[in-house]
From TrEMBL:
Residues 169-311 form the XdhC Rossmann domain. InterPro entries: MoCofactor_Util/Proc (IPR052698), XdhC_CoxI (IPR003777), XdhC_Rossmann_dom (IPR027051). It comes from the Bacteria. Residues 15-70 form the XdhC- CoxI domain. It comes from Comamonas piscis. This is XdhC family protein. The lineage of its organism: Bacteria, Pseudomonadati, Pseudomonadota, Betaproteobacteria, Burkholderiales.
Length: 323
């Protein structure tokens, strides 16, 4: 399942290339609770169709009513940019379905330049990390290579947003648990690779959309070249597969490294790493083991929910205390 940002930008590019007028909408600031985070985007075509989201749906409907010919509006004929704010009053918050106290500010870009949009989409499809900077006074857009993901920056006149390839997940072991985790990760727009050199496990793998690797797991980690948008989960229960892969992953920039197993197995693994691989208690702090949030899970499906929840918490910068 492709990255939402890439889908929005590709659709906007295709609409522009077909001669349509298009408005690109980005959440640039929020106050209080908000249904969508800063940086969320949608594209709106002048005759009504839209893709992406900036709220739970009501604000999208209002933008369609205000700016498209589907409801007799002609506002999209203008150029440049416009800032709009929703949820300032309690009445507006209720009308647009915003949480209590929620307010968000949107940057509207009318008919972005096709050439710049096409360049951006091509860079994203090539797996590049790109910083997109918008001058709100002139509407000019500048693209630059980015070295690492950065938080969205908006000072009222300039928007800077980092766009890039999908978050990636490498799963070690093609068992039942990996199938559930892979499905959940795909629905959360991760690019998923499952590594298992054991043919008897690979033959029953059936998750469409997940890549299947036959490499040894530590080689698969090296081939992946993990970055800050990557996570690695060892789910095979076999130290011969998991251990070397985890050691590679722990010394990478991956935002999450986890391993399945009981607390006793996790302690034994850490002791092996310290005694035989010169790891330390400090270097092993990044290892989430047992994998997942504690929810009393027992079945593969429940454990997958627990694991995916912890991965998303790490991705979103929410550190969950271990109990």
């Amino acid at each position: 399942m492709e990255n939402v940002d890439a889908r929005v930008l590709r659709t906007a590019r295709d609409w522009l290339a077909s001669g349509h007028r298009v408005m690109l909408v980005t959440v640039v600031k929020t106050w209080g609770s908000s249904p969508r985070p800063v940086g969320s985007m949608m594209a709106l075509r002048a005759d009504g169709p839209c893709v992406g989201s900036v709220s739970g749906g009501c604000i999208e409907d209002d933008l369609v009513h205000r700016y498209t010919s589907a409801y007799g509006a002609s506002s999209m004929s203008q150029s440049g940019t416009e800032l709009v704010r929703y949820g300032i009053t309690a009445d507006e918050a209720h009308r647009f379905g915003l949480p209590c106290g929620g307010t968000l500010e949107l940057l509207l870009e009318f008919s972005p330049a096709l050439g710049v949009m096409d360049d951006l989409v091509q860079r994203l499809e090539a797996g590049q990390l790109v910083q997109r900077t918008v001058d709100c006074d002139s509407g000019a857009v500048r693209l630059a290579d980015a070295l690492a993901p950065e938080a969205v920056q908006f000072d009222g006149t300039t928007l800077s947003i980092t766009l890039g390839p999908q978050y990636r997940m490498l799963l070690i072991g093609a068992g039942a648990l990996a199938e559930y985790v892979a499905v959940m990760a795909l629905f959360n727009h991760f690019e998923v690779t499952v590594c298992d050199p054991r043919i008897e496990h690979r033959e029953t793998w059936s998750v469409a959309g997940a890549k299947l690797s036959t490499e040894m797991p530590d080689d698969a980690v090296r081939s992946m070249k993990p970055d800050t948008r990557s996570c690695i989960l060892a789910l095979s229960h076999d130290p011969k597969l998991d251990d070397l892969a985890l050691l590679e992953a722990l010394h990478s920039p991956a935002f999450y490294v986890g391993a399945i197993g009981s607390r006793r197995n996790a302690d034994s693994r850490k002791q092996r790493f310290i005694e035989h691989f010169d790891e330390t208690h400090q270097s092993l702090q990044r290892l989430h083991s047992p994998v997942g949030l504690h929810i009393g899970s027992k079945t593969p499906a429940e454990i997958a929910v627990s694991a995916m929840a912890e991965v998303l918490a790490a991705k979103n910068g929410i550190l969950q205390p271990r109990t």
